[in-house]
Amino acid sequence: METVLVLGATSPTAQAFINLMTHDYPTVQLKLFVRNPAKLPADQRNRFPVIVGDAANYADYLRALPDVTYVYNSVGGVHTGAWTQLLLRAIRETHAPIKHVVDISAGGIYGEFRSGLRPYLSAVRTMYPQYTRDQRHKLDWYRDSGLAFTIFRPGLIQNGPETQLITHTPDYHDIRANEFDINRTTFARAAANALLHNAYPNQSLSVHNGAPLTES
């Protein structure tokens, strides 16, 4: 059975992904990695295997990886660079048969959000320089790992109507203010396509909204 390890499963972004997977890919098993399982909805605690662990603890990755074929990494925080390296080390040293990793990184690390009055996403580069360097190094870390991967760098993930998806590689630097926001389900769908259908292979992509979707 195909199994997706969802790291940081209590985050709103991960919850949207879990809900989409449950609805659209019911035959794919999910394994939820969390620090506090009480924050998970009761139906998820009952339905899915739950690994109680800390992203900063190498041993917790070792406990989580058996039988995993895909990884969705939505763990946040300024120390995620070190934690990403722990994850990749655990995958390498356990020879886990991972087919694809989706990593949720930070918008603005390449200065791509230049226009408009909000959300000043590119200010992350001056506010958190070490964090920004780590997020930019992720591309090299994943390339060096030999794993298939997709790094997404979203603007503001929020509720609202689904839209088309716009993606740009790091050399693109003109994302307009009215494109910053992205619907959670739209983003979750992009992540599922990357994991299960090899969309956006081995790329670091900014992700934001396009035109609203219309019902046929």
From TrEMBL:
InterPro entries: NAD(P)-bd_dom, NAD(P)-bd_dom_sf. SUPFAM superfamilies: NAD(P)-binding Rossmann-fold domains. Residues 8-197 form the NAD(P)-binding domain. Signal peptide: none annotated. It comes from the Bacteria. PANTHER family: FLAVIN REDUCTASE-RELATED, UPF0659 PROTEIN YMR090W. This is Short-chain dehydrogenase.
